[in-house]
Amino acid sequence: MKTFITVLLLCVMPRLLFAPPVGNTSEWGIVITPCAWCGVTNNIQVHHIYPQHIWPERAHDTNNMICLCPRCHLVIGHRGNFTNAVTNLVIMIKEGKK
Fold first, then answer.
1. Per-residue pLDDT tens for 24-70?
2. 16 has a pLDDT exceeding 90
3. Where are the domains of the chain?
4. What's the chain's average pLDDT?
5. How many CB atoms lie under 10 A from the CB of residue 88?
6. φ and ψ of 24, to 5 deg
7. Rounded distance, CA 67 to CA 27, Å?
8. Are 42 and 69 in contact (CB under 8 A)?
């Protein structure tokens, strides 16, 4: 449990607290927009549609990135576990917005 809390404090929390605001350019070169799923505008993160560990050639392709809030990034983008990859996210978002 201590390890989990340590990882949370050292890895996750700084990203949540210091995420660039909407309109700024992220470290990946994509302009930060509101969460594509829920529309939240604070603490936006960049999600790779095609995971960079499987398709490293797409890691810096801005067409392979979408902005999500931390909650949607975990729940929608990774099905609750960051080791999972959801590659049909764009389709899910389009269908959810109907």
1. 777 777 888 999 999 999 889 989 888 888 889 998 898 988 999 99
2. no
3. 20-96
4. 77
5. 9
6. -80, 165
7. 13
8. yes
Query: Residue holding tokens 């529309």?
Result: 39
Looking from the CA of 53 toward its CB, the CA atoms found within 13 Å total 4
Q: Which two tokens stand for residue 20?
A: 């660039």
Ordered DSSP codes for 31-61: BP-S-TTT---SS-EEEESS-TTT-GGGTT-
Q: Give the separation between CA 77 and CA 49, rounded to whole angstroms.
A: 8
Q: Which two tokens stand for residue 98?
A: 């109907």
In angstroms, rounded to a whole number, what is the distance separating the alpha carbons of residues 37 and 68? Answer: 7
Instruction: Decide if 69 contacts 22 (C-beta within 8 A).
Output: no
Least confident of 20-24, 76-80, 89-93: 20-24
